[in-house]
């Protein structure tokens, strides 16, 4: 019974994997057909789906974007079928988060335009490798012959270039918005849209959602009018923005109260002469000033449309209202970690007092107490005292794991003291390495464990792909040949005479 339960744990996300169709109509006159999707699974099909040919007259290279939802990952698309009218109907795949991201020109794409057409040999795969970790798909069909189109499986893999893919430090997600109360200068291009696709309604501005975004929050100290100018460092850069509020939250942004998708380059913002609140790509880039009240909080995103070319901007405030700069520091009341024997997880807990409700905590982890990496983020509860918890499902198998907190206020980073747990758990005597793997997986035994070990490997659909019984004796490391496994995510289940343990791995 225990074996069955463990297998079923991994099946629901596979069984209910989302299906995404290409679009035939752009949002608000633009070429993007759907809101940005952040995902590491799913099936991507032409607009005809799995039973009908794609449509005629999909012109102008209508596109949609898929981005990773895990840290340090890049989206991979594995095409298992593809057939279009050769030479006339074609798909291009961009390595990035925007319409004009550089296209792949490797087989079966053509050089230099990156077009995939006709009936190339399948399967074939394209994997993002850029700061955003995203892939963009553009399709064009003429007015005559159609065909069955394509089917591609979407997944996420570690980016080939270290540092690419979304992280937990940049302010390109609403949950990590930077608090601002005066003019700022942003000197670099945003990496991409972050880990969460948010702010897009699918019907109007912001059409398609984010591209290369920076999120901000600001609170009004005294009532009045509010204007601002976004002044690009390079005047040929195209920046857009959206504002939600008053008192919107990241989880329930709703419809923006100000939003421009203007195709103009150069300055944009709120001023005293504009009369519109929302505008499409044909707008002039300027919207009406806001009348704001003391105590109101607003969320704002500044989005660079071009592909990794922006050089930053100045955000200059105006109007009669004054923004609240009186942010008082967080007081950390306690911080600790404890190993949970039953769940084999580390429970990190802390308490804090705060006089401002837009802070967040980043949980960082280390195996040596020196080099720390971010493993998760928790939004602060609000004004007053709150208690928090975070679960690390993968503490060090047998040894020390170190944790600390990081938070940022007014562009100043603060760290907690370091806490640690020491694990000596007999059920952690066997581990799987490496992860990601290529041609082999090593099953390694620690300490004095001897005896049989049954290894079962399941793919993303829950189908068993390999099974092997190993016996630990003289050697504490046994090797499994995995050359037959295709690229993707797998679950490895280890069963000994004493216990059963599972691991998620990637090839």
Describe this structure in words.
The structure is a single chain. Helices cover 2% and strands 44% of the residues. A hairpin with a 2-residue loop joins strand 28 and strand 29 (412-415). Residues 1-16 have low confidence and may be disordered. It has helices spanning 2-9, 12-15, and strands at 19-21, 37-38, 41-45, 62-67, 73-83, 90-94, 124-127, 135-140, 149-158, 178-179, 184-186, 212-222, 224-232, 239-244, 258-260, 268-271, 278-279, 286-288, 290-292, 297-304, 313-318, 322-323, 331-340, 345-354, 360-366, 373-379, 384-392, 398-409, 412-415, 419-424, 430-433, 440-445, 451-458, 464-472, 477-481, 489-495, 500-506. The strands form 8 sheets. Strands 10, 12, 14, 15, 17, 20 and 22 form a 7-stranded mixed β-sheet that branches. Strands 11, 13, 16, 18, 19 and 21 form a 6-stranded mixed β-sheet that branches. A 5-stranded mixed β-sheet has the order 1-3-9-5-7, with no helix packed on it. The two termini are 29 Å apart. It contains 2 helices and 37 strands. The chain has 4 domains: 18-158, Spermadhesin, CUB domain (Jelly Rolls, Sandwich); 174-323, Jelly Rolls (Sandwich); 331-424, Sandwich (Immunoglobulin-like); 426-506, Immunoglobulin-like (Sandwich), CATH 2.60.40. The chain has 507 residues and is mainly β.
